[in-house]
Design a protein that fits this description.
The chain is an alpha/beta fold. The chain folds into 2 domains: 245 residues, TIM Barrel (Alpha-Beta Barrel); 121 residues, Lyase, Ornithine Decarboxylase, Chain A, domain 1. 28% of the residues lie in helices and 24% in strands. The longest helix has 19 residues.
Length: 385
């Protein structure tokens, strides 16, 4: 169906999107449950429309993402906004649209909202104030993170909520990044909820556990999907007990939902020898993000040969890179395949999350085209209905 398209290009499967959604949903037995698709992961309109038609809500982080979700058919009550550094005009737009949930990220933003919109229901994003071992300097969790309201600020939150007459209806956290296992992730949330004072549960309607889960999980592994689901359900039941009412559980898996739904189709440009090794360097025409994405996190990226100019069957080991003028666009350091030549075509899996949206005009190249395969087998462009 895509033969003759100029490489590189990205292709996504709506059939795999639905299968991924069902796999996640099937692990949860919690009755009042909502799964949201994070628009930052992949904002392609055909994917969003498909996700919303399945019953997913939208996790948005900006007014622009909020407007995109609405334009693609997401019901406003299923939109959850968790952003950073909102100003008054952005808050006005959010209030005007009447979306289902807004999570304020700081005491200052909470004060601004409650002063302008007293008596309304509001959510907050929470974070830990402990030191978390971080690798690579991207601090999502703990005392040094820019994200969320931390326990020392809880008394100020209580004062603002009570003085304004606002209702605290939702709690959100994003504590998965750099957790080494699903159990460590669950324990982080448990330790945070234990520190939440009773006023946070007086009128709570939902608990949002966020996302940040790895793209791949397996039962019995360090990240076990069933252990994760059972742990989150237990936490939500405990919150419901403290609130003396049923509290909805919400999740926002991005990579875990979408990574397997996409692939990049790329052509071999150059094959180089590595001095002193049998391994070779394969340079593709692939355009990849020059920053970390799921491709850099997974130990085994699905790679397959789609077309070869010559049929030689001796196997070689390859280190594979894209063609940007940086060494950060590596795909894998070790992949065994039949002998490959310039002009051969390769499929790179796990490209459904963050890859398309993070590709820039680095080296002033045009981003790759993006195509979607519907469940009926039709190929539509990224903008098609």
């Amino acid at each position: 169906m895509l033969r003759g398209k100029r490489t590189p290009f990205l292709v996504y499967s709506l059939e795999e999107l639905e299968a991924s959604y069902r796999r996640i949903r099937d692990h949860f037995q919690y009755e009042d449950f909502l799964q949201l698709i994070p628009l930052k992961t992949n904002p392609l309109p055909p994917l969003l429309r498909a996700a919303f038609s399945m019953g997913m809500g939208a996790d948005v982080c900006s007014v622009e993402e909020m407007n995109l979700a609405i334009s693609q058919g997401c019901r406003r009550e299923l939109i959850s906004f968790t952003g950073i550094g909102l100003n008054e005009s952005e808050m006005d737009e959010i209030a005007f649209e009447g979306i289902g949930a807004l999570h304020l990220d700081s005491v200052q933003e909470l004060e601004m909202w409650c002063r302008k919109w007293p008596g309304t229901g509001i959510g907050i994003r929470l974070n830990l104030d402990t030191r978390i071992d971080e690798r690579c300097g991207c601090i999502y969790v703990g005392a040094e993170s820019k994200m969320g309201i931390k326990p020392p600020d809880f008394p100020a939150v209580e004062r603002i909520i009570k003085d304004s007459g606002c209702r605290l209806v939702g709690l959100h956290c994003h504590l998965a990044p750099f957790a080494k296992s699903s159990l460590e992730y669950i324990r982080r949330i448990e330790s945070l909820i234990e520190r939440c004072p009773s006023f946070m549960f007086d009128e709570i309607e939902y608990f949002n556990a966020g996302g940040g889960w790895p793209a791949l999980m397996r039962e019995g592994g360090s990240w076990d999907p069933r252990e994760l689901a059972e742990g989150l359900e237990k936490i939500c039941k405990e919150i419901s007990s403290r609130a003396n009412r049923s509290v909805q559980l919400r999740i926002e898996p991005g990579e875990h939902l979408l990574a397997s739904c996409g692939a990049m189709i790329s052509e071999v440009r150059v094959v180089k020898d590595i001095p002193g090794e049998e391994r070779r360097i394969l340079i593709l025409d692939a355009l990849l993000p020059p920053i970390e994405c799921p491709l850099h996190k997974e130990p085994s990226i699905p790679l397959s040969v789609l077309g070869r100019k010559r049929q030689e069957f001796e196997n070689y080991e390859y280190a594979i890179y894209g063609r940007n003028n940086t060494a950060r666009d590596y795909i894998t350091k070790s992949w065994r395949a039949p002998r490959l030549f310039p002009g051969d075509t390769i499929s790179i899996g796990m490209c459904g999350a963050y890859v398309g949206v993070l590709i820039s005009r680095f080296n002033w190249r045009e981003p790759p085209e993006q195509w979607v395969i519907t469940k009926e087998g039709r190929v539509v462009s990224e903008e098609d209905g």
